[in-house]
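Weekly structure sync, notes
Attendees: PL (lead), two postdocs, one rotation student
Agenda item 3: pending single-chain targets
PL asked that the sequence for the first pending target be pasted directly into the notes so everyone works from the same version. It is reproduced below exactly as submitted, 424 residues in total.
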Amino acid sequence: MLYQHLTDACFEEQLGSHGVSHKRIEALLSQLGDAFTALKTRRNKDAVALLELPSRTDDLAAIQKLAEEIRSKYETVVVAGMGGSSLSGRTLTSLAPLGTKPVFHFLENIDPDLMDEMLEHIDCKKTCFLVISKSGSTAETLAQFFVLWDYAVKKLGKQAAQHFFAITMPGDNPTRRFANKQGMTVLDHEPIGGRFAILTNIGLLPAAIVGLDIKALRRGAKMVVEQIEKSSQPKDCPPALGAALHAAFMEKNYAISVMLPYAARFKVLSAWWRQCWAESLGKHGKGSTPVCAVGTTDQHSQLQLYLDGPRDKFFHMVMLERKGTGRLVAGDSVSELAYLQNKTLGDIMEAEQKATFETLTRHHCPVRLFKFDRLGEEQVGAILMHFMLEVIFTSHLLGVTPFDQPAVEEGKKLAKEYLLAGKL
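Predicted structure, written out during the meeting:
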């Protein structure tokens, strides 16, 4: 089982209590007819590369070969990149077991203190630097790039270039020019926006370095695309149904969307989803605010607000089958905890996640459920593709373009003006 999407079951008794009628859901699904057909027939030109990517295998051997080379030579990998350029690799490498080598450092910030601390704790001779920038001109990534290069040259001299790899779009751009000038290895970034490019080399190279099965990641995503191709109408397509539910609840002022996985390794996936949702849909006064939580941690921080605070949140729970997994808990020595005796940590997690789901529904909080029997590469590839397609369908209902970020560009231009004018 890739994943079980229990939207219908979860909402059958809930929709009316939130003012959302089945008739409205059906109307929104009808509005998705053209978008659904455009995706199926590849007439949505902006999404063609994303939809065709899961079926590709021509690039995987080269990714795997480079990953094996890096893994055999280096103990540390430093990734310089912003947004999806960093989150893609961080999301997938977070699935690797604790202690997996090489160790990754993702520089998602230009905080000088963090840079200094990281450089003080790595052995440059055993470190690989991976610079990722789709445009090749992102100021923060270039700043990271130049700092890392200066550091490496001081430590390694003429050998520094052998430690650097860059991923950027073909053509002339600052990243490619600088990397080529220094004799670094340069890889082509696929023509897919960073937040949608997690299943390209920007995500799959780090994933392969830590030993994940990148073929299985693509295979899981392909199954979701094939489901759309086999569906005759939007209501049979889980990403389209999810988009209709999102739009319906936004119309009822549910302005916050909460991702709540009960799996620690899905915590970073939530951060990837948050960027994909916010940057793709937050335009022209539209969209909802994505919030990340993780069970059971946030039962002790955010759940009180969720259950007893404003009714403005739409919840998306992600569960794994946990019963009987993990170490046994010895609860017999404390009488008050006798109910834990002979239970595993997985048993407790299973009880906690079920209880949270049922409590949310009892408090009339709109919640849907994604359930997995295990957390493998196919399952992860499937849920990634599900959410990317859900964002695209939702953008159609909101009347926005999901593949740009115009408001962000305004801030970038202003920061550049400050630097040029010396207004610091």
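Discussion points:
- The longest strand covers residues 313-320.
- The first helix runs from residue 7 to 11.
Action: rotation student to compare against the earlier draft before next sync.
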